[in-house]
Design goal:
heterodimer, A: alpha/beta, Rossmann fold, six-stranded mixed sheet, four-stranded antiparallel sheet, 39% helix, globular, B: alpha/beta, 2 domains, ten-stranded mixed sheet, 9 helices, 22% helix
């Protein structure tokens, strides 16, 4: 295959405080591919998402991440977002006083500005919002409320996918987007994600459970354990994990 | 000669000394002589030195003058919109030609024109007392003008009142407001302070006395928008009777040194008071808010929220006292003071003081002073919003819930814009 990867992670090592979490992680994602990252609690899944988005609590101590040919680790969080990296947060932050609409308009226009595009005026912005809201069955009221304030768990996750739809990233990282969702909310969120699969956009779906992957079917499944990817396969690997749990992988790795 | 001696000499030569207020003026100057100017050794003035202000006040023996303020400048300052009853003052002197025609269905006049009014005689200087407050004493002794409002019983005043004070020179503007809302009446007031330009080193002292009688409703918004060379000392005393409501919002973006005392006495059952404050400071500004709620009667509620965003080398002070007297059972009293410091050199001194002598009450207070929420900042940046814009957006959001309580839509939007403008450059 001659296509160049959109995201290329080699030997990534990261720590928080003195605690080493990622210990030489390798992963390559091509445009349009959906990769699921699974693994037991504490294996480093959320750390990977945070490091890719640029959260400053983590210190990268080694390795390299190339995104679209650029050194991602050298970029500020906002520059990563402008370049097309989107993190759907595991715990979306409540921001009282900032309306969803105002927040998104600022974000969309900053991203546009970085691409040399004119800002959207209010009319075009509203039209875009209206179109994207349908994807995750958001109602108008949610956009006029403060960002995530008083939202249920499901509403927060739908809002993440709505933001993704608005910002149209090249790479979307879903950090345990299924956590805390009932089956109906899960179906809506997954439906939104699937609608955004267009053959070019890549996804990194981080999850503890196979359940989400019934709805968002991955091209590849990787198992992260103790800061490394210890096994890679196709969607059948996820089913195997669902059936057998993680212990057999732990045993194999420790052996 | 020290500053106090200068004040005494100034008073002896003061041209209004023998007007209809002569009795209360001379009593007030006696109180002032007894106490002198407060220093930072006084607990209530610990963080706020009035040395420069004392100098300035003591060197001024003549009345302020006016004449620089033009209609075009006034038009730029109509933050509550044009559909208001407008009273304009320049350096504390009433500017009739710049003001709107005053209505006749309730009393609203410049104070100097109604010194013989029975209600003025009854209340002026009786609500805000001079005995222990040197600046009230000085204001009473030297008052030039201000606004007198007397709303008769059952009168609901629809049109908001805008009292516009502009400093155009360096002479102190010494103003006084007296507002009496008779039973079941209602009025909305907006008071704003401005400088004519960026270079005038003005000084205002204002005392406001408010009486809200049974089931009366007074809302008050004060905006302190002067340049950063102008200082202001203000003292507001509110007396509330049974079933009355009073709401105050104090918004401060301007001023070199600003000191506000807001004292509310809940003197009748089932009355309630709301006190909101927002101060956005930069450079070397100082804003000192002292509030006092005196719960004297049962079944009353007070609710206080003051917030500040402090940048540069600015200083904020919040001192909030709540007294709940022995008779004031079933009191609800809430107080909150929250601050964000934008720089290492900014400082906030906050002190809540609750003194509760009744046993069946609900009271709470809380203060926080910190930096912006890192998690929220990261969230915004992760959506492509630059760090500076993200900080501004969060600061605006932090400030918004204070101004959101303002009922007059035009005023709310204009003050929000002023807040946003200030935060964008902090």
């Amino acid at each position: 295959m001659s296509q160049k990867p959109l995201l290329n992670i080699s030997n990534l090592q990261a720590q928080i405080g003195d605690k080493s979490i990622l210990k030489g992680l390798n992963l390559s994602v091509k445009p349009g591919e959906v990769h699921a990252i699974m693994g037991p609690n504490g294996s480093g899944k959320s750390t990977l998402a945070s490091v890719l988005a640029g959260r400053e609590d983590y210190e990268v101590t080694g390795g390299e991440v190339l995104f679209d040919g650029q050194d991602l680790l050298e970029m500020s969080p906002e520059d990563r977002a402008r370049a097309g990296v989107f993190l759907a947060f595991q715990y979306p932050v409540e921001i009282p006083g900032v309306s969803n609409a105002n927040f998104l308009k600022t974000a969309v226009n900053e991203v546009r500005k970085s691409k040399g595009l004119e800002p959207l005026d209010s009319k075009d912005f509203l039209a875009l919002m209206k179109e994207k809201m349908k994807l995750v069955e958001m109602d108008r009221q949610m956009t006029s409320r403060s960002v995530n304030e008083g939202f249920s768990g499901g509403e927060k996750k739908r809002n993440e996918i709505f933001q993704m739809a608005m910002l149209e990233p090249k790479l979307a990282i879903l950090d345990e987007t299924d956590s805390g969702l009932d089956i109906d909310a899960l179906r809506i969120v997954a439906g939104g994600v699937n609608a955004l699969r267009d053959g070019n956009r890549s996804f990194l779906v981080i999850t503890h459970y196979q359940r989400l992957l019934d709805y968002i079917v991955p091209d590849f499944v990787h198992v992260l354990y103790k800061g490394r990817i210890v096994r890679s396969g196709t969607k059948e690997l996820a089913l195997e994990l669902e059936e057998k749990g993680y212990d057999w992988i732990k045993d194999e790795v420790e052996a | 000669m020290n500053t106090t001696d200068n004040i005494i000499t100034g008073f002896d030569n003061f041209e209004l000394k023998s007007d209809a207020l002569s009795d209360i003026r001379s009593k007030a100057i006696d109180s002032f002589i007894k106490n002198g100017f407060p220093t930072t050794r006084h607990e209530e003035w610990k963080y706020t030195s009035v040395k420069d202000i004392a100098e300035k006040l003591s060197l001024t023996t003549k009345r302020a003058s006016a004449g620089s303020l033009k209609e075009s400048a006034v038009n730029e300052l109509m933050f509550a919109g044009k559909d208001v009853t407008l009273l304009v003052f320049e350096n504390g002197l009433f500017q009739e030609s710049l003001s709107s025609p005053l209505p006749n269905d309730y009393i609203i006049k410049n104070l100097a024109s109604v010194l013989n009014d029975a209600a003025v005689k009854q209340y002026l200087g009786k609500i805000a007392q001079s005995e222990n407050e040197s600046f009230v004493a000085l204001n009473t002794a030297f008052v030039n003008d201000g606004v007198f409002i007397h709303v008769p019983a059952k009168k609901v005043v629809d049109k908001p009142v805008h009292i516009l004070y502009v400093n155009s020179g360096s002479e102190p503007a010494i103003t006084r407001n007296l507002v009496i809302a008779e039973p079941e009446s209602s009025i909305q007031l907006f008071e704003s302070y401005h400088s004519l330009d960026e270079t005038c080193e003005g000084l205002s002292t204002n005392v406001t006395e408010v009486v809200v009688k049974r089931n009366g409703n007074v809302t008050w918004v004060k905006a302190q928008l002067e340049n950063e060379l102008t200082s202001q000392i203000s003292f507001t005393q509110v007396e509330q009777e049974q079933d009355s409501r009073f709401s105050s919002t104090v918004f401060t973006t301007g001023g070199h040194l600003v000191r506000n005392n807001l004292h509310i006495r809940l003197n009748g059952t089932n009355s309630n008071a709301h006190m909101y404050g927002l101060y956005l400071l930069s450079g070397e500004q100082l804003c000192d808010n002292h509030t006092l709620v005196d719960h004297a009667m049962p079944h009353c509620e007070s609710n206080e929220l003051y917030k500040g965003v402090l940048g540069g080398k600015s200083t904020g002070v919040f001192n909030g006292k709540i007294f709940v007297r022995q008779d004031a059972q079933k009191t609800n009293a809430y107080q909150s003071n929250k601050n964000i410091l934008l720089s290492d050199d900014a400082q906030m001194n906050t002190k809540p003081q609750l003194e509760i002598f009744a046993d069946d009450v609900k009271c709470s207070h809380g203060t926080t002073t910190g930096q912006l929420d890192d998690e929220a900042l990261f969230y915004l940046r992760a959506r492509g919003i630059g760090e500076q814009s993200a900080r501004t957006l969060l600061n605006i959001a932090f400030a918004a819930d204070v101004l959101n309580h303002i009922e007059l839509e035009t005023l709310k939007h204009n003050l929000q814009s002023i807040a946003e403008e200030k935060l964008m450059h902090s």
